[in-house]
Amino acid sequence: MKTMIFAAGLGTRLKPLTDTIPKALVPIGDKPLLQHILEKTDGNGNTIVINAHHHSGQIKNFITITRNNWKSTIKISDESDRLLDTGGGIRKAAHLFCEGADNDDNSNVLIHNVDILSNANLQEFYARNIKNDATLLVSQRKTSRYLLFDQEMRLAGWTNIATGEIKSPYAELLRQKGCNPGSLTLNSRPLKLLAFSGIHSISPKVMAMMDSLPEKFSIMDFYISVCDKVSIQGEEKDDLKILDVGKLETLESATTFIKQL
Length: 261
Prior knowledge:
By secondary structure, the chain is an alpha/beta fold. Helix content is 25%, strand content 28%. The strands form 4 sheets. Strands 1, 4, 5, 6, 8, 9, 10, 11, 14 and 15 form a 10-stranded mixed beta sheet that branches.
């Protein structure tokens, strides 16, 4: 399994902790966030790439110190010079999955935000969707920003229900800006509103479509821009338990959350 862990963020919502350490190394229980994700994605023959920007040296040192703990080959995609956002980060790291005789250039890459804790079985999610162009793990979690899927669970766009904003390559959907979110349609068929988990899988075919984009861009904006050309699928997990450890007030509950998984 190939995995990329997004660990380059500034962690501004976790200040003052992130004034001195990267978000990836903020402790949850008796181990840092990054270690929780590594333990769920580690395996014989696996390749894991971690992008690093804020306090990147500390992330590199952590990997060096713990290297004997992992069965996977772990690599760092260094964004110290410039933070590239999620899409630019994937494109910069893509070549690291092709290095080495044992790597299969045609296999998908699992993408995981370092500050997301969940009960998702990542190995099974990866295996189920390995032939898809891209797959987004979603649920009915309440939020103000939803992804829009058709009845076949193909991505059609995005909406912010608080502002009425819609992003989509489909003109029919864009014309419905300001409508009741529950009444949004595409080809006269109702759309499903589902929340993104920060966990997804992407194929080399779709990554190749990023080549002409600017150095820095959002992966979600990219997905939305190409969802009429390739199949960006959603996988809904009814019993998904997920916690975004992005704010100071979530740290205490995160320790309890981990114990209950």
